[in-house]
Each structure stands twice: as structure tokens, then as C-alpha cells.
Amino acid sequence: MTDAPTPGAAPDADARLDAFAHRHHGPLATAAAWWLRNRTTYEAGRGDERPLTGYALLASLYGAATSTAVAVLRSRPGRAALPDRADLAVLAVAVFATTRTLTKDAVTTPLRSPFATFEQAGAPGEVVESPRSGAVRHAVGELVTCPFCLAQWVGTAYLAGWAAAPRATRWVASTMAVVGASNLLQHGYGVLTSASEG
């Protein structure tokens, strides 16, 4: 079972699913009740918030977006060229820089604030945030504050962009790769100067 929603607050996805399972009968209500039992027993494992409903919704969204991109790209005439090794290196650095910018940069905090709360300052120009509570908000909060989590989404978007509009994607990826390399050099320089002073 889910906790009762705060008075005046909109019920989260788990609360709506729980209400659906109790009001209806049939295979969908049975599936909803099974899901809630499964989620509850999983989340009770360590006392940590593990919002399976939010994770399932995000995984479904990722699958739907990827499937749509593949379907659109397959319907286009001709075959998209695969990136070569040098392009993959640029894309890898671009994914690194893009995910760090989206998940950690202080300037992009307004994009994350509906799903995360400030914890403390991080590396120069970065912040450390934690996900807000709620089935979907917590899952999205984990996604948008974790560069490793978001890398899958960003990498898929770059490769889909590469297949659909290689020239524009190459420009964006090259820009972000330059930013990423610059960030690494700045951090490396900071470490070297700190070591030489200490």
C-alpha cells in the first residue's frame, strides 16, 4: 500500500494506481495490485526510496522514444551512415560533457529543481542535489541528477541525431566535446596548481 497523500496535494502515480486497483475488478486491476505488492516488497528491502513505478514509467518512455526514433529513421529513404571511430570518440566526449552540464552544472539547476533539491556545492561550477520524494518525481530526480543515468538517454539522442541530421549533430557534438575537453583541462590545471602549492 502507499502512504496517504498530503491533504491538498495531487496524488502521485502509486496512489492513483492503488485507488484504481481497489475500485475496479478484472485483469488490469489484478495487474495493478500485483505491481503495488511487488513494488512495496522491493522498496521495503533497505528502507531506501526505490520508486519502481517511476522507474517503470521512465523505462517505458525511453523504450517508446527509442522505438519511435528507429521507426522514423527506417521510414526514411537511404541508409544512415554509422559514425566512424573518430566520430565515436567525439560523441563519447560530447555525451560526457552534455550529461555533466545537464546533471551537475549550477546554471542548469532551474531545469532540475522540480525534481531535485540542493544539498551542497560540488566541484567548481557544479552542485550536488538529491531527488525529491514521490514515485515519479524521485525517479526523474535520480535521472536528472546522475550523469551515469542520463548518459544512456543523451547517447541515444546523439546517435539518433547522427542518423537523422549528421551535419547538425556533428556541430552540436563537436561543441560539447570542446567544452568537455576544456573542463577536463581546467580541472587538471587546478589539481596541478594545488599540488605545486601544497
Mean pLDDT equals: 85
Task: Catalogue the unreliable spans.
Answer: 1-9
| Beta content | 5-15%
Q: List how many beta strands DSSP finds.
A: 2
Characterize the quaternary organization of these chains. Answer: single chain
Total helices: the number is 8
Strand order of the largest sheet: 1-2
Helical fraction = 55-70%
- Rounded to an integer in angstroms, the radius of gyration calculated over CA atoms is 21 Å
Distance between the termini: 56 Å
What is the H-and-E element order? HHHHHEEHHH
Large-scale geometry? flat
Q: What does the largest sheet look like? A: 2 strands, antiparallel
Structural class: mainly alpha
Q: What's the domain count?
A: 2
Show the helix and strand layout.
Blueprint: H1 13-23, H2 27-43, H3 52-75, H4 85-104, H5 109-112, E1 116-121, E2 127-131, H6 135-145, H7 147-164, H8 166-197
Antiparallel strand pairs: 1-2
Helix pairs in contact: 1-2, 3-6, 3-7, 4-7, 4-8, 7-8
Question: Can you describe this structure?
Answer:
The protein has a two-stranded antiparallel sheet with strand order 1-2. It folds into 2 domains: 10-46; 49-197, no CATH class. The protein is mostly helical. Helix content is 69%, strand content 6%. The N and C termini lie far apart (56 Å). The longest helix has 32 residues, at 166-197. 25% of the residues are buried. This is Integral membrane protein. InterPro entries: Mycophage_PG1_Gp7.
